[in-house]
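[Discussion] Sanity-checking designs against the backbone

I'm trying to build intuition for which residues belong where. Below is a structure token string of 226 positions. I'd appreciate it if someone posts a full sequence so I can compare it with mine line by line.
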């Protein structure tokens, strides 16, 4: 249970640090989302049930059967992603903290219970990272590797493996077009639930630098499971 609750402490600290700068309504939404994340992480997930629910809820229609995503439609790969990350992002979409209009009707409370979400997240985390990735031009790989090591690895891991304790997603082995889109959304304030420090950092990036990071990450293989 401790490994599920530790991320909450990091999340709470983050909210305390930025909460005073938020309007009252935003603070209320943030607190509600935080409570839901804590509740979902406290549940005991069932991967077999999660696999069945992933199919029943038609998640594969966009994310494909093995959750490999779609490079041609900016749909992310979810296989191998940290369950805690999936839970937080889905609940942020539900609450409106993260802007994702196509996903919002798919993750309502009526359609997706917290138990079902915990089950699906565990199923996705357990899936192998297979299949072809949408690659970038490869011209920015060296520059992207340099920038990632300098600015991103402290949170997302040296191999892009992510860090569930701070809800930092695995960014290795992700589709190039999705990475570019989300990095732009974070930089431009569109995503909504971005880490403020990351948003501030990306505002200092030239567009070529942003694309270079995505180019590099789309080439990095998925980290080995521990």
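Best answer:
Here's mine. Compare freely.
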């Amino acid at each position: 249970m401790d490994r599920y609750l530790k991320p909450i402490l990091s999340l709470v600290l983050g909210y305390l640090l930025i909460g005073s700068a938020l309007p009252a309504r935003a603070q209320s939404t943030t607190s509600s989302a935080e409570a839901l994340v804590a509740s979902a992480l406290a549940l005991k997930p069932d991967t077999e049930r999660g696999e069945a629910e992933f199919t029943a809820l038609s998640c594969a229609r966009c994310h494909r059967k093995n959750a490999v995503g779609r490079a041609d439609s900016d749909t992310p790969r979810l296989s191998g992603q940290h369950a805690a990350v999936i839970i937080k992002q889905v609940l942020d979409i539900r609450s409106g903290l993260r802007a994702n209009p196509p996903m919002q009707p798919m993750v309502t409370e009526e359609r997706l219970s917290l138990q079902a979400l915990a089950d699906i997240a565990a199923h996705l985390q357990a899936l192998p990272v297979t299949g072809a990735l949408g690659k970038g031009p490869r011209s920015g790989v060296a520059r992207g590797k340099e920038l990632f090591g300098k600015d991103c690895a402290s949170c997302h891991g040296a191999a892009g493996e992510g860090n569930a304790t701070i809800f930092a997603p695995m960014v290795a082995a992700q589709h190039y077009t999705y990475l570019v889109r989300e990095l732009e959304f974070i930089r431009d304030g569109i995503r909504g639930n971005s880490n403020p420090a990351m948003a501030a950092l990306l505002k200092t990036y030239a567009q070529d630098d942003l694309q270079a990071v995505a180019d590099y990450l789309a080439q990095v293989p998925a980290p080995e499971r521990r």
